Sequence to fold (146 residues):
Amino acid sequence: MPLLFAQVCSLVIFAAFIEEFAKVFPLFYRHGETERSILDLGILVGLGFGVTEFVLYVFALGAPFISRVAGVIFHASSTGITAYGIAKKKPITFYLIAVAFHLTNNLFALFSNSFSFLFIPGLIVLIATYLLAWYLYRRTSETIVV
Fold:
């Protein structure tokens, strides 16, 4: 199997689907939470995942510190998007939106080392993810989700 194909499959496609599902899986087992608290929990889970990935990449793999900071906020935002879907009883739709952002972000990150012009589209994906998560957060209420 060619190396590029293996990298795209593992780092771009599989990572996006698996990470997004693993981050929100515990949110399906909650009772008496409000929409806002589900989103808060999603953001905290994503933040924890992002910090763990940050530590792994920076201290174990030697990635530059500054290049991994955006990933911490990205994971919190993408998990918040899926958590919004759980709160609104549309988990698959918002899961797929988060996966699409994650997949696109990973694709630009993989190829931006070789093609520096991909930095700008990658930055746009990051900003779009942050803004969508913020917008969805503002749309949640303190209504208890049953």
User: Anything to note?
Assistant: The CA atoms of residues 85 and 91 lie 4 Å apart. Residues 52-146 form one domain. The first helix runs from residue 3 to 24. The chain has a mean pLDDT of 90.
